[in-house]
């Protein structure tokens, strides 16, 4: 066990299908090759849980054993699932939809944004990194995730709608800094599921660089069938694993430098 506080990193954007879960999952997996990592699934879709554990029947297998119960009991240790020695996860399932109701009807916390932060606090010294996946919405789940984090990675699939969502996500980050998490930093904007050679992608990269100078990670994650198939074949005993995650090794190197 190390005595340093984990770097807590949220992957987010309010636009759906921009590779938040895929990027969070691969990043957690790669970081765990050299460090102790806790993945936290704050999306009721449970995709990060499926991705890292290989379990699809989330409501059966993780019935009342998810981040929602961890939050309600403020006892996260009980809900940590060990994928292997270095990679752990707190799962989620559909019932995380009840989180906003809990926040506004049951939780007595003065600052409702810091409920997840409070939940994570007993175990932050047990990990080097905590990686949080969020839903495609500026919801309570996302706000609590950002409020618990040291850094945010903003996903971008190169589309106009995703470009618009960056501005809104950054507004939430500013609000979060003013309301409980003053030290939150933007780790950067990560392009994913794109073909970097197309004119449209190049134009979007240029636009982001002009508007958000220095934010963009140099690594651009390409659209690859092997990356998509990771959701089916998983990380373990997967002969095309390197094809699917290779580019992320460069991204993770960049990320580690930015969160030093
Ligand atoms: N680099 C990639 N190349 C090809 N397919 C990808 C890549 N990254 C992600 N995908 C696929 O794109 C789809 C959306 O990815 P993912 O689920 O990670 O996005 P998301 O932002 O988490 O979505 P949601 O907003 O629903 O949470 C998935 O089918 C995933 O397997
Ligand atoms: Mg997702």
UniProtKB/TrEMBL annotation:
The question of whether Flavoprotein is a record keyword is answered with no
Arranged from A to Z, the UniProt key words for this protein are: Plasmid
AAA domain mapped to chain residues: 6-186
- Domain of life according to the entry: Bacteria
Q: Cite the InterPro entries for this sequence.
A: AAA_dom (IPR025669), DNA_Partitioning_ATPase (IPR050678), P-loop_NTPase (IPR027417)
Q: State the PANTHER family in the record.
A: P-LOOP CONTAINING NUCLEOSIDE TRIPHOSPHATE HYDROLASE, PARA FAMILY PROTEIN CT_582
Protein name (Swiss-Prot/TrEMBL): ParA family protein
Organism of origin? Bacillus kandeliae
